[in-house]
Amino acid sequence: MPANAQTLWFKTALLPDGWAGDVAITIAGGLIVHVEAGVPATGLEAHHGAALPGLVNLHSHGFQRAMSGLTEYRQSGGDGDFWSWRELLYKFVDRCTPEDVEAITAMAYAEMLEGGFTRVAEFHYLHHDTAGHAFSDPGEMAGRIAAAARDTGIGLTLLPVLYAHSGFGGLEATSGQRRFINTPASYHDILSSAEAHCAGLPDAIVGTAPHSLRAVTPGELEELTAMRPDRPVHIHIAEQEKEVADCLAWSGARPVDWLLDHVAVDERWCLVHATHTTPGELQRIAASGAVVGLCPVTEANLGDGIFNAPEFLAAGGHFGVGSDSNVSICAADELRMLEYSQRLAFRRRNVIAEAATSTGCSLFERALEGGYRAGGVTGGLMAGAPADIVVLRDTPHSIETGSADRLLDAWIFRQGRSAIGEVWRRGRKLVEKGRHVGREPIKARFHKALHRLVS
Ligand SMILES: [Zn+2]
Q1: In terms of CB atoms within 10 Å, which of 69, 244, 345, 437 comes out highest?
Q2: Are strands 389-392 and 420-425 parallel, antiparallel or unpaired?
């Protein structure tokens, strides 16, 4: 055993092959080095709750956390939809400085850790200064996101985004998009700088992300996917019915069909949303091995629509969850909203459940595996994995009375984030009694940025 090792003891833990009792997890150098079940707690640092592996939040725009709660009203001219929300977003984006982005993102990341996520895939498209010019370091904003990850301790899969056009067919970008817009060449500079900024983070990964099929031409998409051929690739797809109609008008094909017809989509791909898809498209995604990135709370907030989970799961598809606009940040909220949206759409209960496990356990385990795949990582409570551990507070009734799956059901359907006691990330305890250990200064910086942005 390494000299600097520490051992944590849990009454129960969700290991790769299922629940185990009286589990000792030994950690050294940020990694799990040994896991053993049936060990007495005597002499070990005891944590009587239940240990879960941390989830990957597979889709986030950290800076949008500052808009949470500020767009819930009608504007003149109608109820509002995704596109009118986006206009508000662009006005907000106009004012964000690098300092603001770092402060807001750090708050979002602290809340993600408190909410059960130990890694985030950040879909990062706010690249340029307020006038739309590249910073002297083109990856300035990527560096701010890396700093927020470093300050909070969350694992980072950073996905600099190529956004080149305002619509299908290479339409010119609008002035509201000036801070996002790049050519493949200027994008490559951002990507290289992002990699340099992330070099000091212990297990950061930098992937690539075409924003959507409407924002890149086929030629640009081809250039981008060749840039880092072994890393994750994420793309927004089929979130909006208008997007599907525009894609059909442009190409004669729906977005998912078009992508799968023209690009070698495989396990490194994450198709974010995939809300408006046919059964045939869902079967094709499942066969490709790509992960669908579901963001149920944001999709509900924006009125996007409901993903067809039964069709996708029947085809053997993989999904994970993300907090996207960060209107609320909580893994249990995402998993609960996913299941409830399915119940409302299909008028059934326990839609995501597999035969042998509870609904909570099925949701969690599927989102865990899909999150790892989309994040470009492996994990779990096993030797060799990073010590990323979420501890549910002690609920002895659930543990004593039969299946420990009930712990997950209680967390997701009854308690939400209040169920989370501690969160460890690479062996460091970052959340204690449900609060991030650095919360106060992070919150103070966030409030300062928010005050400036909304005043
Ligand atoms: Zn998004």
Answers
A1: 244
A2: antiparallel
Distance in Å, CA 361 to ligand 1 centroid: 26
Would you say 290 and 267 are in contact if contact means Cβ atoms under 8 Å apart?
yes
Query: Boundaries of CATH 2.30.40.10 in the chain?
Result: 6-53+380-439
- State the pLDDT at residue 401: 43
Express each pLDDT in 114-126 by its tens digit.
999 999 999 999 9
CA of 12 to the centre of ligand 1 (A): 35
Cα–Cα distance measured from residue 423 to residue 183, given in angstroms and rounded to the nearest whole number: 40
Q: Does CATH place domain 55-375 in 3.90.1570.10? A: no
- Domain topology for 6-53+380-439: Urease, subunit C; domain 1 (2.30.40)
Which DSSP string do the residues of 65-123 spell out, in sequence order?
A: GGGTTSS-SPBTTBS--HHHHHHHHHHHHTT--HHHHHHHHHHHHHHHHHTTEEEEEEE
Is-above-0.90 flag for pTM?
A: yes
The neighbour count for residue 172, using CB atoms within 10 Å, is 10
* Catalytic machinery residues: 273, 324
* Numbered ranges of CATH 3.20.20.140 in the chain: 55-375
What was the pLDDT predicted at 359? 95
- C-alpha 188/C-alpha 192 separation (Å) is 6
How far is the centre of ligand 1, averaged over its atoms, from the C-alpha of 291 (Å)? 15
pLDDT over 80 at 278, yes or no: yes
Distance of CA 241 to the CA centre of its chain: 23
pLDDT over threshold 90, residue 88 = no
Given a cut of 90, is residue 214 above it in pLDDT? yes
Contacts of 73 (CB under 8 A, 6+ apart): none
Q: How many CA atoms lie within 13 A of 220 on its CB side?
A: 26
238 with 302: CB under 8 angstroms? no
Residue 298 has φ and ψ, to the nearest 5°, of -65, -40
Amino acid letter at 126?
A: L
Report the separation in Å between the CA atom of 78 and the middle of ligand 1, taken as the mean of its atom positions. Answer: 24
Q: What is the CA(7)–ligand 1 centre distance, in A?
A: 39
Q: Give pLDDT tens digits for 132-174.
A: 999 999 999 999 999 999 999 999 999 999 999 999 999 999 9
pLDDT tens for each residue of 286-331: 999 999 999 999 999 999 999 999 999 999 999 999 999 999 999 9
Nearest to 426 by CA among 377, 393, 392: 377
CA distances from 100 to 154, 325, 363 (A): 19, 16, 34
